[in-house]
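Changelog note: in this version the structure field was regenerated for every chain. One regenerated record is shown below for reference.
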Amino acid sequence: MMLLIKNAFVVDENSPFNAMNKDILIENKIIIAIENEINNPEAQVINHTNLHVSQGWFDLKANFGEPGNEERETLQSGAAAAKAGGFTKVALSAATNPAIQTKSQVEYILSKASELGIKLLPLGAATINQEGKQMTEMYDMFLAGAVGFTDDKNSIQNAQLFTSLLQYANNFGAKIFHYACDNNLSYKTLGHEGIAALHNGFKGQPAIAEDVIVARDLAIASYYNVPVHFSTISSSGAVQLIRHAKADGKQVTCDVAAHQLFFCDEDVNGFDTNLKVLPPLRDKQHQQALIDGLIDGTIDAICSDHSPQTIENKKVEFDHAAYGMSSIETAFAMANSALQNKLSIHKIIEKFTTNPNHILNQNKHAIKVGEVANLTLFDPIQTFTFDVANMKSISKNNPLHGFELTGKVFGVVC
């Protein structure tokens, strides 16, 4: 089959056609021509006003539930949601039931993913059952196709164990994705420690709960000269610590969840359980620090932190609700809406493409003749009103119903 993309503005700094409007002809999954004008009566034509095309987007953090939590999300429904959100690659959290912690479990994910039309890349559990007590057989999982290792939202409290994980993974070129949070400082908290928490009458998590673990991890990684990746950072202190570490030449990367850029702790005043997430939505000062970190390159990537939950886990009192947001379908729109007039579209797309691929050592499919067609089609200025009824995800725990967002995804070619 042939596909012809008409008059698309190329957003790809690795392409010789970057920032140009071009026609792109694809045959048998390969880009065979990029020209000012292509006419081919045999090709299916894609043509939209203000059509933009980039490398396929890569989500560094999503949970699809399967195996064990298929009532929240299956690999099939998650892949459909990812495509609707513009993603052609997704790094899958190991927080399933049981956790992805063996070679056979990694192979199961890859086998099922091969039929779903996008690339699903499993992250293996760093510790057995993600309990932070004993290391998993990471090398076996790596050989089977795991691209990194994480205990998801279970922060590893034992410094000696964390040191061993970093050193061991580094031996074969893998990274630990760490969610930084001191459990003692965050015990039984429901949101960010600040004015909004006082107003709402619940115990808040101080930002320093994140900062102290980031500081510890950076010290360990620096001492042993090994890389570390911080997943879904949220505090100004973490941004500053990572900024200084990068300036000193340390091997550190990080990402931020798109909803941290769009929402803040004040939005939780209505007790919408769909806004109950980890890390918690912080105040505007921290949010601005995250935006500044994206602008100056301290924060490498933007992820969805897609965490689908059933209605039974969300339609309850706020303190009993599960954490998480079904966000992969709106991640770009949230980030793009928040970053308008602050970061160029090329830099925003870099946070969804080039940088995530670099972090996990994945191939970059530049937009040029002869390359495999791995593309996302979108309009960064088109506005739309989000309707949860149209979601592809099984779970609808998304707080954006009725919101007007900027940045429309038309689809993916993968």
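Spot check on this record: The mean pLDDT is 97. Residues 56-364 form a domain with the TIM Barrel fold (CATH 3.20.20.140).
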